[in-house]
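User
Please review the sequence:
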Amino acid sequence: MNIRTLPVFMPAKYNAWGNAGSTGSVMVCHPASDAYIIGTMNHFGYGQKGVRFMLQIADKLLKAV
């Protein structure tokens, strides 16, 4: 899964590659911050929350650099 943002809606700093599962699980490589983000929400209906969580973590990592 390659997460590419549309510049109109979100900046390119959120581009990443990896996978997001239906249970809110996320494992992605975020090249802009040189980090791997791995986590799970452990709930079947939380697929979108896992991706939002990944974007929040990526934002915090970029602000810390």
About this structure: Residues 7 and 47 are 23 Å apart (CA to CA). The chain has one helix and four strands. Strands lie at 2-3, 16-20, 26-30, 35-39.
